[in-house]
Design goal:
single chain, 396 residues, alpha/beta, Rossmann fold, 4 domains, five-stranded parallel sheet, 18 helices, flat, binds adenosine-5'-diphosphate, binds magnesium ion
Length: 396
């Protein structure tokens, strides 16, 4: 049986939902693109049209779409040879070509060759290169990011998803209760692929679907926001529920730790409960630090258990708490980002000078800082620093 996501895969741009801005930007970019220009980096959550957009645009223009799935071609040589081949051959049958490097996060960060090959292709390609990725801000993609124009895809809104589900039901001859489609759309949190997949699962061997059938799909793990899990952590006396909430949250348990710390005094007003709560938190902190000191991820699960137990410190205040974001964590996160950027940059410079990142940081950067501060224009032969990186060095 054919997957409905494929059967109902949009063939024309007018069938693509929600992504008006991204579509416009991509179309304009394609029209303006000249050899030597940057590549286009399409990014956003899964099931929102990242692969779809270049595919449909190529079809409409009758251009050839050369697709490379970066997660399949882990070996850098094959990316290299495949890519250099396609970027240099004109097609006899198509007026143009788009080179699509799909799911670039699949490239391992250790695979320097693969990353380098992609950058080389971006620079040398005679055809526009489109790269797709979920999160472009992971350190390993920094070098690629510098060579790309970024275009963001947002989650598909629930109403559009609901409408598309209804159309599919009509075409498949399935009768669906109003609420079922609404709930399916809402559940999918903007991932239309998963919504259509859920619908197909539900409709198997059925001519009509009701709210009751939804239950048969069971609980689906979905990322939930930290604001909706904090009440569970602070107030639920069900250890398992709290544990599950932490694991399903869109934030890392490490970050949740700081959210809990920052909001404890608001939740537990009685001094005894507050003291107990901080005692539990301090134990969680011991495990938290063991994770990073010993690089042993087993401790993470102990930390989660301790955090989940915080509600046993006493009776929480009960009313509505306006949870506040932990400033301290945000400062730490910024510091971490600077550190990651600095070490990525040093390694990149090191690959030119054949030295380790450490040596670059300790011995070269002070000189580079002087050189950069004396230069009027930001041209630094070969290394190609982004504005952000130049600032980082100047402020180091
Ligand atoms: N914006 C959209 N409009 C309509 N259908 C979409 C959209 N985004 C995704 N889909 C559906 O989801 C499926 C997967 O889309 P795809 O572009 O491959 O997602 P991803 O963003 O993960 O690359 C498509 O076959 C299509 O059915
Ligand atoms: Mg995709």
């Amino acid at each position: 049986m054919k997957l409905w996501t494929e059967k109902y895969r949009p063939k024309e741009t007018k069938e693509i939902l929600s992504q008006v801005k991204a579509l416009k930007e991509t179309t304009e970019w394609l029209e303006r693109w000249r050899p030597g220009d940057k590549a286009l980096l399409l990014y956003g959550p899964s099931g929102t049209g990242k692969t779809l957009i270049p595919e449909v645009l190529a079809r409409e223009k009758r251009w050839f779409l050369m697709q490379i799935n970066a997660s399949d071609e882990r070996d850098s040589n094959s990316i290299d040879s495949a890519l250099s081949e396609i970027s240099k051959n004109h097609s006899l049958f198509h007026p143009g070509k788009i080179i699509l490097i799909d799911e670039a996060e699949g490239i391992s960060s250790r695979d320097r060759g693969g990353l380098k090959a992609i950058i080389k292709i971006i620079k040398e390609s005679r055809f526009p290169v489109v790269i797709t990725v979920g999160n472009p801000y992971v350190p390993k993609l920094q070098s690629i990011r510098n060579h790309c124009k970024l275009v963001k895809l947002s989650k598909v809104n629930a109403l559009s998803i609901e409408k598309r589900l209804r159309e599919i039901c009509e075409k498949e001859g399935v009768k669906a209760d109003e609420d079922v489609l609404k709930n399916l759309a809402r559940w999918s949190s903007g991932d239309i692929r998963s919504a259509i997949n859920d619908l197909q699962t539900l409709c198997q061997d059925r001519k009509g679907i009701t709210e009751k059938d939804l239950e048969s799909l069971g609980y689906r793990e979905r990322e939930t926001s930290v604001f909706s899990i904090l009440p569970t952590i602070f107030r639920s006396k069900n250890l398992n529920a709290s544990r599950q909430a932490i694991r399903n949250c869109d934030k890392d348990p490490d970050e949740i730790f700081w959210w809990v710390e920052n909001n404890l005094p608001q939740e537990f007003e009685h001094p005894d409960s507050l003291a107990k709560a901080f005692d539990i938190l301090s134990r969680a902190d011991v495990f938290r630090q063991m994770v990073s000191k010993q690089q042993n991820w087993r401790f993470k699960s102990f930390m989660i258990d301790m955090l989940a137990g915080i509600s046993f410190a006493g009776e929480p205040s009960g009313g509505f708490t306006p949870y506040k974001s932990p400033d301290r964590f945000i400062r730490l996160a910024k510091l971490k980002r600077r550190k990651a950027m600095m070490s990525g940059l040093s390694e990149r410079i090191g690959s030119y000078t054949h030295t380790s990142g450490k040596i670059v940081q300790n011995s070269y950067l002070p000189y580079l800082k002087i050189i950069l501060s004396r230069k009027k224009k930001s041209d630094h032969e070969g290394i190609e620093l982004s504005e952000e990186e130049t600032k980082l060095i100047l402020n180091s």
